[in-house]
Design goal:
Length: 189
């Protein structure tokens, strides 16, 4: 059992193979990103600006709409009494109706897991872009699921670089820095 390799399925292989830019952002999208980074700590303002960015990306990629929810509560997390074990920054959910993505939503937790401080604008934007790439995987690439493959992270990096905000993402592992996972969940209803 241990050491036995599981053969990747077709969804995994398709996700892995698609590493290019999922959408060509325009000057409006870049402006919305900068506006979002300057939005301050108000969850309603962040939600509004985040929704404008997601609407723009959806239009550019010709995807069905995806709503943005900002929960003004701490990140869901697990703690062993001494240390934080895991936390969820946000998640993406959608439904499939006759093979088409509907009711898509990105939810972002606005406060840190333990100290319950407002997340930074960079963390907010990183999470928003990460979850939108899940939306792209389901609605654009029509994947059955959206695994965290190297291709997924390449799409996310290409999007952030095209938006001129690559600095909001964790460093590449080959930079010698330790990359951190985003802690996102995906649920298809």
């Amino acid at each position: 059992m241990f050491g036995r390799r599981v053969r990747p399925d077709s969804t995994y292989l398709r996700s892995q193979a698609r590493s290019g830019l999922p959408v060509a952002p325009d000057v409006v999208a870049r402006g919305l990103v900068m506006s979002l980074l300057e939005a301050g700590d108000d969850p309603d303002e962040r939600r509004h600006r985040g929704q404008l960015l997601i609407d723009t990306l959806d239009d550019l990629a010709r995807l069905p709409p995806c709503g943005v929810v900002v929960a003004n509560r701490p990140q869901v997390h697990e703690h062993d009494g001494r240390r934080l074990q895991s936390k969820t920054y946000g998640y993406y959910r959608c439904r499939f109706v006759e093979g088409v993505v509907t009711d898509a939503r990105i939810r972002i937790y606005h406060r840190t897991a333990v100290r319950q401080q407002v997340i930074t604008p960079k963390v907010f934007l990183n999470t928003l872009l990460h979850e939108w790439v899940h939306h792209y995987d389901f609605a654009g690439l029509r994947l059955a699921r959206s695994p965290h493959t190297a291709g997924f992270y390449a799409r996310l990096r290409a999007l952030a670089d095209a938006l001129d905000v690559g600095f909001v993402l964790p460093p590449e592992p080959e930079d010698g820095s330790r990359a951190t996972a985003s802690g996102s969940d995906v649920e298809v209803l």
